[in-house]
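User: Predict structure, ligand zinc ion.
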Amino acid sequence: MASIGCIRTILGLIQRNYNKVPAWAEESRIDWFQALNKYDDSEVEEAVRSIVRTRKKLPNVAAVIEFIQANRKGKEAIALEGCGACRSTGWREVAHWYSSRGKLQVTTFLAACDCPKGSRFAVKCWRDVVDKMRDDPFTEAVYYGTHEQPNLTQEQRLHPEIMEKVRERNQAATTGAWQSLVDVPSEPRGGE
Ligand SMILES: [Zn+2]
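Assistant: Predicted complex:
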């Protein structure tokens, strides 16, 4: 809510910049307060300072309201950009598991999200890319970032052989360096 103090400040600013007599600010105070009191001090001040800086014409209440509303819309548009599935980057993570000459390959890359931000990067979005990969008979699996899980897991991102090495290294780190020097057989794992 715009305070009477804020209205006094902005009218003083206008009065000085447009060579108005101090009585003009006095007389205008109530009208301006009534018209602008539903807006915040900060946005009223921002609007008036910007109008005074950029326009030659004496600002009126209507111009201030118009500025505030346009400013709010602009801020909303920025806030709408991006989404949870792309972590507001506009890009979704995709992992493609496919066989090439009988060997499993895993490629991880970024595809444009279908949110407003992602749509500006590319005409085709992640869904088109994923559908195309799924149609490919050599595809074994496709994983992609979702609203529930924007980041892929290490198991989805990495080739099983690399993942196994990562697991071995993690296990060596947790069991102690002295053990990793000895050839310790890895513990059997269930369900893999
Ligand atoms: Zn997005």
